[in-house]
Write a structure and sequence with these properties.
With about 240 residues, the chain is of the alpha/beta class. It contains 10 helices and 7 strands. The protein has 2 domains: about 35 residues, no CATH class; about 200 residues, Beta-carbonic Anhydrase, Chain A.
Length: about 240
Amino acid sequence: MDGPGSGLGQLIGGVRRFQQVTAPLVREDLARLARDGQRPSQLFLACADSRLVTSMITSSGPGDLFVVRNVGNLVPLPGEGEERGDESVAAAIEYAVEVLRVESVTVCGHSGCGAMQALHSTATTAGPPGEDSPLARWLRHGRPTMERAARRGRAGAPRLADRGTTDDVEALSLNNVLQQLEHLRAHECVERRMRQGSLELHGMYFDVGRAQAYVLTTPEADETVFSPVHPESRESA
């Protein structure tokens, strides 16, 4: 059951490599964090997709990010989680904003998102009648994203600065980042900190196939644009 080819075998092999190679390099930092507690400066809300490695794309280490991941990087509106018994995201937001006093919150979507594909399929087909699985119930939090995309259409859709969106699912993923930022603002603790000027909200999109990150650069303009993040040498050239 736990041979080299099994899931547990792969996991233990990775842990062994960590103990041999990485642990000696981070032990001092982890000891400090264990002693002094965590003080992350950012809350990072991302999809649970295994291809989205938050520490890799942000070059962050232990204690840098307070990370919340779920299917579709969704932020239920206040009260919705309570009604449906899924308050974990609201609890994490409250803890990060009120207790840890993070300075910024980032919502990160990504290409090829299965949750967005499921939402798009539901919008274009009737979907399984009476479906009431845990996944289907969770994805109902994404309905405002579909309504936003339908309301704004292609003319008012967010776009990537360096290329066109590949399909309707990618367009939905970009809309989803914007919609979840709106949901964040609806949380009282977030709204209060923003009003005080002590909290910023940011949008991000990661193109998995191109290994390219984008940040939301014009959220209040007529055009909503996600701009690519380039290496420093290219930006300063």
